[in-house]
Description:
By secondary structure, the chain is mostly helical. It has one domain. The chain is built from six helices and two strands. The longest helix is centred in the N-terminal third of the chain and has 38 residues, at about 35-75. The radius of gyration is 29 Å and the shape is rod-shaped. The chain starts with a helix and ends with a helix.
Amino acid sequence: MKRMILSTIVALATFAAASAQKFAMVDMDYILKNVPAYERANEQLNQVSKRWEGEIDAILKDVESAYKKYQSEAVFLSDAQKTKTEEEIMKKEKEASDLKRKYFGSEGELFKKRQSLMAPIQDEIYTAVKDICDQHGYQLVLDRASGGSIIYASPKIDISDEVLQRLGYAH
Length: 171
């Protein structure tokens, strides 16, 4: 009997604690689309990416034309000349591959540039969300944009517009 009463008290205490928690939701895609600095940063990243892709493409075109030239002249070249030409072509291919890794690798220049441009924006948004949570007593904030497991969320708990207002982008 004591065990049943104790279990009931624990269950009620757990329910009371859970019901006292406040939750909120943000839509990071929505917020980011309404932050001009984010759009500018994305545009910068696109321009840098296109420039670097152009560099790599130019090297690969050189490789392709050198290879075609080599194929057409191979019958006239000595073994030493063939080897030298093949090595030059492979060297250019490696140069393109190294450049691609340098620019677009997992720790490459594009990654670093994205971090340097996006981190301040993300920090500013995080600070605004944290301030709102402290002000309203939210214990948990979910991101609707990245939360594939959120089936339904009431618009009443969406604080995205409040975050934008806190950032100075009245919406």
